[in-house]
Amino acid sequence: MYEELLPSIQEREAWLKAFGRQTYRDAFRSYTERFGPLYMEAARNCGDPADLAQKLLDGLERGWRAQRFWRRGVVRAEEKQMVVVYLSPMLLGLEEPACQSLAQALMEQWAARWPGDRYTMAPYDQIQAGFRNAIMGIELRR
After folding, report:
1. Is 105 exposed, middle or buried (0-12, 13-18, 19+ CB in 10 A)?
2. Could you tell me the pTM of the whole model?
3. Residue 125 per-residue DSSP state
4. Which of 51, 60, 87, 115 is the most buried (most CB within 10 A)?
5. φ and ψ at residue 69, rounded to 5 degrees
6. Closest CA to 17 of 26, 122, 112
């Protein structure tokens, strides 16, 4: 089942290009429509979300090792960005409670595997608000 989920992270080029102030809302909606049902089904059927998280990270790592050595770091960074700006916010927003547990397990297991490369999660609304509240990379305080 997890093999069907890997494209949500590994098919990153178009999604990352659409991660912009004007385009993220529509891209996130399309991403959620495409991958949300797959993740809800997987989360319902996986038993332990930590097991599914481990399988996803194993799949990502295999994909990185398959890259030419000079591309591995770039691919890993881009896939991490996919997890941060698309996958985690989507999982946090889905109605299936196991999806939130999966998001948490992914973040924790990523940190355990690569302690120097941790990430944090934010819901979609907070990421979208970051676009509205920033000018030239400087966050505006309310």
Report:
1. buried
2. 0.90
3. H
4. 87
5. -60, -30
6. 26
Q: Are 90 and 52 in contact (CB under 8 A)?
A: no
| CA proximity to 13, closest of 73, 79, 95 | 79
pLDDT bucket at 23, cuts 50 / 70 / 90: very high
d(CA 66, CA 64): 5
| DSSP code, position 134 | E
Are residues 82 and 8 in contact, defined by beta-carbon separation less than 8 angstroms?
Answer: yes
Each residue of 59-82: pLDDT tens digit? 999 999 999 999 999 999 999 999
Distance set, CA 97 to CA 14, 25, 48, 122 (Å) = 29, 23, 12, 16
Q: Are 98 and 45 in contact (CB under 8 A)?
A: no
In single-letter form, the type of residue at position 46 comes to C
Residue 36 neighbours by CB under 8 Å, 6+ apart: 90, 94
